[in-house]
Protein 1
Amino acid sequence: ETGVTQSPTHLIKTRGQQVTLRCSSQSGHNTVSWYQQALGQGPQFIFQYYREEENGRGNFPPRFSGLQFPNYSSELNVNALELDDSALYLCASSLGQGDGYTFGSGTRLTVV
Amino acid sequence: GNSVTQMEGPVTLSEEAFLTINCTYTATGYPSLFWYVQYPGEGLQLLLKATKADDKGSNKGFEATYRKETTSFHLEKGSVQVSDSAVYFCALSFDYTGNQFYFGTGTSLTVIP
């Protein structure tokens, strides 16, 4: 399987709820990063996982958490959703440090 | 800190016009520099990259040169096509464990026939 697949493509949640976004990386890609892209802005780094361990985190609160699984899929979980969490969430995977990243098409999350 | 500044958009050009999108960066070390492109409804695609000073990245007619003295990585194309219409992001990254990309805010390009 080639490419990075994210699901769902669109999602609407209510403030205070919890959400799980999913990413299926390219086979063999043991590094996955998640980014938040607000409307009209560049993507902001949330965190990175390497071989199922978090190994880098941006300036996001603990209510943003993640998991990476042995089959190269991963999840982004956001608790206690706020209106400002409305954004496009991008997953990017790589073979490892120093290699290029492949980005998915993203999940558009709207919090109302 | 680390950051990337891009020229404000949107940019509208006629087909076959010359394109320049300015990008400057601030970095605490020696980063690699990238241009990504985002077509409507799609994720980011790597357009080109340069890993050290004076390197020139090129792809699909686009070019950018890593200028350490001016901390710049301007994107150029000699003759744009309608299919080049997209949002272009300049970014920097360091090659270490847990590395992340620092993106600019993006520049929207529309090419009209």
Protein 2
Amino acid sequence: DAEITQSPRHKITETGRQVTLACHQTWNHNNMFWYRQDLGHGLRLIHYSYGVQDTNKGEVSDGYSVSRSNTEDLPLTLESAASSQTSVYFCASSDQFFDTQYFGPGTRLTVL
Amino acid sequence: GQQLNQSPQSMFIQEGEDVSMNCTSSSIFNTWLWYKQDPGEGPVLLIALYKAGELTSNGRLTAQFGITRKDSFLNISASIPSDVGIYFCAGQPYGQNFVFGPGTRLSVLP
């Protein structure tokens, strides 16, 4: 069955370190998204991609970057982790722009 | 940016009761989605709505796309313990990405 996976599921890191969170989908979806989820907030869009080599900034993109070298993967990189980036990160994908998004299981990141 | 309001923020109900929650926006949306999130998991799609006035069911769940296109409603009938979780709405303005509400946390008491 097609699915979307994230790794690691849990990560603890130190302030200033570079961290990369992986997202892999086997739906063959064109669109992929990264969100962060914090208490009291809905899911907030960090970056998104509508296809290979395409990346776009979302609502809360500062301190994050993504690259899309193939259809299946959209890794999220925190260039220099900050305590404010402690959060749960979700990756999602959709086939067409107006289509529903399917979410991965999430990565809980703690920055000490 | 766009914002969605969900009401109520949290609710405690008895098993067997019906549940109603809603999502409102100041902007018009073309698509409404309802998701459920269990602890430690990603959101799972429950219902998708694409047309104003549309009423769609998925088992005990029924959702409606408001006529004004600025709101949506989710009802759960005869609640059971596994309904516990956080329910999120998401709306998509024309030509823009989805916006997510802050969620309604549902607790079901036996």
